[in-house]
Write a structure and sequence with these properties.
alpha/beta; Rossmann fold; 2 domains; 6-stranded mixed β-sheet; 29% strand
């Protein structure tokens, strides 16, 4: 199965939310990485066939998804960023409701509900009302509903927003486990969501695809750009505003910095290996990274 995004753009009034976006995807996890407001959600909604592009087209196996219509929706699973739950429904009843919306036969639906509840580790909670669920459990239930029709394309928008570190790890492992033999597109502004599970990472800013590569390729492109340096507070004060600073560690002798620069930024600076967070800082700056870490 091949999904192709071909020169896709979306304009709201006089503002381009997405502009001339091109990508090709086959089985595996694809991480769409960018700060809030970069156009990720608009792109995801077009991929989910909720929004129509202003121009361009999205193809599944060489057929426009608008022409495929219901045939496309039959192979699609979607978990939006804002996912509402019926608070007085149990997990089991909630999934039964969505199974009926997806047109699943009752007997098949019963088996499928049991299967997806087990997959997301919610079987023992199936008769509990969703209003008692933690944030992580709600997101897992959201994934369960998206998987009811055994989709070949799974689109997940900002899945770990508001989750604690333990729930975030659990969710990331779940996404990795279900990515076999399907295309999973995961939109996030949190670097750790995709750092070790994405087949390819697509970096998006202001509606434009800035870079696409696997993790090794992105890190290789940062060679000679990531540095660590120890210095006095006075030297640090003189450097502020000149470079993108990823980390500041104060000690008895002064300040140790991790910073991004195309050239050696300080006499004592030593080049270090890059991380995906360094890549994010390189493209989006300190404010975006602070939002990621918040």
């Amino acid at each position: 199965m091949k999904l192709v995004i071909e020169n896709v753009s979306k304009k709201y009034n006089d503002k381009w939310a997405v502009r001339e976006f091109n990508a090709e995807m086959t089985d595996g996890v694809y991480g769409l990485l960018g700060p809030n407001g970069s156009g990720k959600t608009t792109l995801m909604r077009m991929l989910a066939s909720i929004l129509k592009p202003t121009s361009g087209r999205i193809l599944l196996d060489d057929q426009d998804i608008r022409t495929l219509d219901e045939t496309y929706r039959d192979v699609l699973g979607y978990l939006p960023q804002e996912f509402g739950l019926y608070q007085n429904f149990t997990a089991e009843r909630f999934l039964a409701y969505f199974a009926s919306l997806k047109g699943l036969d009752k007997n098949i639906a019963k088996e499928k509900i049991a299967e997806v509840l087990a997959l997301v580790n919610l079987t023992e909670h199936k008769r509990k009302k969703t209003k008692t669920f933690s944030g992580g459990m709600k997101r897992r239930l959201g994934i369960a509903q998206a998987l009811l029709n055994d989709p070949k394309i799974l689109i997940v928008d900002e899945p770990t927003a508001g989750l604690d570190p333990k729930e975030r790890i659990h969710f990331r492992n779940l996404i990795s486990n279900i990515s076999r033999e399907r295309i999973v597109i995961l939109s996030t502004h949190i670097v750790s969501d995709i750092e070790f599970i994405a087949k390819d990472i697509l970096i998006m800013d202001q509606g434009v695809l800035k870079e696409r590569s696997d993790l090794a390729g992105l890190l290789s492109g940062m060679k000679g750009k990531v540095w660590e340096a120890s210095m006095t507070e006075t030297e640090f004060a003189s450097l502020q505003g000149q470079y993108k600073i990823g980390n500041i560690q104060r000690n008895e002798d002064g300040v140790k910095l991790r910073l991004i620069s195309d050239e050696k930024p300080h006499a004592q600076a030593v080049e270090v290996l890059a991380t995906l967070e360094d890549v994010y800082l390189y493209y989006f700056g300190e404010e975006a990274v602070q939002n990621v870490q918040a």
